[in-house]
UniProtKB/TrEMBL annotation:
GO terms for molecular function: tRNA (guanine(46)-N7)-methyltransferase activity. Pfam families: Methyltransf_4 (PF02390). GO terms for biological process: RNA (guanine-N7)-methylation; tRNA methylation. It catalyses: guanosine(46) in tRNA + S-adenosyl-L-methionine = N(7)-methylguanosine(46) in tRNA + S-adenosyl-L-homocysteine. Keywords: Methyltransferase, S-adenosyl-L-methionine, Transferase, tRNA processing. This is tRNA (guanine(46)-N(7))-methyltransferase. CDD domains: AdoMet_MTases. Its EC number is 2.1.1.33. One of its GO terms (cellular component) is tRNA methyltransferase complex. InterPro entries: SAM-dependent_MTases_sf, tRNA_(Gua-N-7)_MeTrfase_Trmb. It comes from Musa acuminata subsp. malaccensis (Wild banana).
Length: 317
């Protein structure tokens, strides 16, 4: 069973989670060293420099100081990766601007990616696998690959090619052999990729995906019935799914998709009552010990992160 524990300096949160620390220490989802300060978590910016927006509460209007602080806080919290040292080595991959929204239903994203030769991608392709769907800038997954003591592999799937190129460049510069990024539409590529991976799939994370607010665009959202079905079939027994968003409506949508498969999954608080949830069933504390960029950005704006964690209890029929 895959367990997560994170070590390393420079990333400690300013608060302790008290009883949550002991809960996480015994969790199959995350094992944390007793002396480690937890760090709260989420995901990525929709662009490298977040812009002020007014759409439906997703990109909330923020103060100028908060807008200026976001990139600085990201740099500080990921400082132990020393990624700035590599900006000069590839100037066009340093600070890049990308499209905020991508239409995964476009014909250009309809073809599944070519399956890699796994033994060429990972040093040991038999290790348990974590797949991060919508890996964004890649910092979150790179930090886990570099700092978590448990032996496992990490696969990041991202639909914006420039981010994938830069993430993979960073991986090569850091000399990490347990992580790989792919330019892929997870909706069509997740199933063929994980079905060929030699080791067990133990964790799938979908952290603050694009909310696609307009109702006619909901079909573009990454968490669709087809993807949930693939995850339920391919995840190993005891494997887990971690979804979260700072947009409540999207969080409910993802929750409903996985709640529809409770014959296969159980929510983590029914398995381990040490996981603290509010009265609505949202997990109160991030279990990864690290914030993603989207969470940093959202929390600076005063947003709440809505989290659900599911564990596979039986084989999908």
């Amino acid at each position: 069973m895959l367990v997560f524990g994170c070590t390393g300096g420079g990333w400690c949160a300013t608060h302790a989670l008290g009883s949550a620390a002991s809960a996480m220490a015994s969790s199959p989802f995350l094992r944390i060293a007793p002396t480690l300060h937890l760090r709260r978590c989420c995901r990525k910016f929709w662009c490298e420099e977040p812009k002020e927006g007014t759409t439906n509460g997703w990109t909330r209007r923020r103060s100028t100081s908060a807008a200026q602080r976001s990139p600085d806080v990201v740099e500080v919290e990921y400082a132990d990766l020393n990624l700035k040292n590599f900006y000069g080595a590839a100037p066009n991959l340093g600070h890049i601007r990308i499209r905020q929204h991508v239409n995964p239903l476009s014909s250009s994203f309809a073809t599944p990616v070519e399956i890699p030769v796994w033994k060429e991608v990972f040093r040991d392709p038999s290790l348990p696998l974590m797949v991060d769907i919508g890996s964004g800038s890649g910092r979150f997954l790179i930090w886990l690959a570099k700092n978590c003591p448990e032996r496992r592999n990490y696969l990041g799937l991202e639909i914006r090619q420039k981010l994938v190129e830069r993430s993979q460049f960073w991986v090569e510069e850091l000399g990490l052999a347990n992580i790989h990024f792919m330019f892929a539409n997870a909706t069509v590529s997740f199933e063929p990729l994980v079905s060929t991976y030699p080791g067990p799939l133990m964790l799938v994370s979908i952290l603050c995906p694009d909310p696609h607010f307009k109702k006619r665009h909901h079909k573009r959202r990454v968490v669709q019935a087809s993807l949930v079905d693939s995850i339920s079939k391919r995840l190993s027994i005891g494997g887990q799914v971690f979804v979260q968003s700072d947009v409540l409506e999207l969080a409910f949508d993802m929750r409903n998709q996985f709640d529809a498969c409770l014959d296969v999954f159980e929510h983590v608080d029914t398995i381990d009552n040490n996981f603290l949830c509010d009265t609505q069933g949202w997990v109160l504390h991030n279990p990864m010990g690290i914030r993603t960029e989207r969470e940093i950005h959202a929390e600076l704006e005063g947003a709440r992160i809505y989290r659900r964690i599911y564990q596979k209890q039986k084989h999908c029929i």
